Amino acid sequence: MALDKAALAYNQSINEIRANELLLNIARVRHHHPIQFTTMSSVAATFSFQMNAGAVPPLGAITAGQGLSPIFGTGISENPTITIIPVNGDEFNQRVLSPYSEHNFFRLYQQGEDIGLLIRMMASELRADQKGDDRILRNIPRRGKGYEEFRRRVLHLTALNHTHHLFVAPIVVQQTITFSTKENDHLETVVNALETGYRWAEDDNKGTLSRNVAGRIIVSNYDVSDLTVEERNKLFLYTNALPNNEIFVDIRPGSPGGDYPFHGVIRLRAFLAVLEFLGRGISEEVEFPVEKDARTGEVRLNPVKTMEIEDGSSDLGKGSFSISYEDRTYSILNGDNPEAIWNLEAFRLLGQLYELSVHSTFSKPPPAITIAK
Asked: Would you write out the chain's pLDDT as a tens digit for each of its 373 residues?
């Protein structure tokens, strides 16, 4: 029983600490203060159980034969040792300052995250492949018209996704190598290639090694597999030259949603930039309502803010998560209406983004519970 309760209690405590730490750092950014994260590498809890029993004469008894009164006693003590390590140096740079990659975005999308929420939270801008002042659409409210157009483009992608007309997938091409079967010099090369996933096929005096290779992620209103081999190869080479934090977007005329075309990239930002966007959005750079374009289909939900954070005096009602900082209380309020659910999902996504930034270079184990008894 003690083991069961301890494991669940520590699990819940660690989860609450992580959530409160995220909210605390948003509050720090809101006040232009430095941020700080910590990790708990281990929790060691030692339990001590004691039991004693005995018998004493009844009160006032001074002679034998009057019987004895039994006594029983039990006790339990717990001595936890928790190791807390600040996140700094190279780990801070990797987890907080380095931009997210397209693979982070794609993994979250595959798990069913709302693409509109993902882009509004993770993207710093949409960069169109065109000339003019509207080439860069920044996800910053003070940019005015550029921010409005950014939101409208995100709503357009969201509407296409809801109607299953948006494709988010890697570009797959086939790599082939042809040999002459009359020559034996290539035997070792063929064997090594087969071990790495290539397939072998013979035709007359020629043999061909081939395999499918997945390239970069593309967001489009058409199925990339329907393109010709030449078109796929061209896209494959073009997107491979993009930085790792950029996702190619190609909304073409002639396909659903193509009357509002876009050809460019989504540029992803770092976790610190996400915190700054949310923290400054409390009072300094507040997001404002943006309606969808007339060419965009139905959108189920279009919240004003990416994540609503209640900012009030210390007597503000507590929410699902809340933290006090600089004599103010910052809360993520709960509820069962669509906007409140969106808000809680946004906070959950924020926690996932922080966990996704763990790099294999840092080999500290996740929080562990060691219980000796």
From this structure: 666 677 787 778 888 888 899 999 999 999 999 998 887 666 676 767 667 766 666 665 555 555 666 776 776 666 777 777 777 777 778 878 899 999 999 999 999 999 999 999 999 999 998 766 568 999 999 988 999 999 999 999 999 999 999 999 999 887 777 766 655 666 666 666 766 767 777 777 777 777 778 899 999 999 999 999 899 999 999 999 999 999 999 999 999 999 999 999 999 999 999 999 999 999 999 999 999 999 999 999 999 999 999 887 655 555 678 888 988 889 988 888 898 899 999 999 999 998 887 654 544 555 554 544 4
3-class secondary-structure state, position 29: helix
Q: What is the CA radius of gyration of the chain?
A: 30
In angstroms, the CA 117 to CA 21 distance is 22
DSSP string for 285-327 = S-----PPPTTS---S---SSSS--EEEETTSPP-SEEEEETT
Q: Give the CA distances from residue 328 to residues 148, 317, 318, 333, 334, in Å, rounded to whole numbers and listed in that order.
A: 31, 12, 12, 15, 19
Q: Max CA-CA distance within the chain?
A: 114
- What predicted TM-score, i.e. pTM, was given to this entire model? 0.80
What sign has the CA pseudo-torsion 134, 136, 137, 138?
A: negative
Q: For 73, how many CA atoms within 13 A lie in the half-sphere containing its CB?
A: 7
Specify the DSSP element, H or E, that contains 332: strand 328-332
DSSP code for 369: E
**Can you say how many angstroms the Cα of residue 150 is from the centroid of all Cα atoms in its chain?**
21
Token readout for 158 is: 């969201």
Identify the DSSP state of 258: T
Distance of alpha carbon 344 from alpha carbon 307, whole angstroms:
8
CB-based contacts of 309-317 (< 8 A; 24+ apart in sequence): 309/23, 309/26, 309/278, 309/281, 309/282, 311/30, 311/282, 311/283
Pairing of strands 136-138, 123-128: antiparallel
Residue 263 near residue 222 (C-beta atoms within 8 A): no
Strands 167-180 and 206-220: antiparallel
Residue at token pair 């992620």: 217
